[in-house]
Amino acid sequence: MGIFAGCDEAEFRIQETEFRSQNIEVKRKECGMERLPAKSFQDLIVWQKAHQFVLAVYGFSNDFPKKELYGLTSQIRRAAISIAANIAEGFKKKTRADKVRFMNISQGSLEECRYYLILTEDLKYGNGLKLMSQLEEVSKLLESYSTSILKSYL
After folding, report:
1. How far is residue 38's CA from residue 58's CA, in Å, rounded to a whole number?
2. Which tens digit of pLDDT belongs to each residue from 86-112?
3. Which CATH class is domain 41-152?
């Protein structure tokens, strides 16, 4: 009968492949890696992290000098909001081109925030190191999300 106990070698390999595939799915579920389609932009981890960044920017910029209220304070807040807002707006767009365009705008606003954080350091308005770390996390997630949009429409 051989080592495959009633199965021919091809059948055994198919069963082995199916087992590995099921095993991978179980491991993904155990690790919380199971991905369900987002029903709302609020389900997107990238939006959640971007929103947390906006809230952190508001807290951070509260301590800027009053003379900056209509300058740097307003600009950094506007740019931070734009990151999350464009993710939200792009979520409901129907075409890949539209979705990617909004993610690209979001990435541009993210880089604008990066500059403002460098500027706040140079002007001694506060330590934006924690914010820079959050921004980097959003940047990586946004890049991954944009890439997944491009791949999902191919």
Report:
1. 27
2. 999 999 999 999 999 999 999 999 999
3. mainly alpha
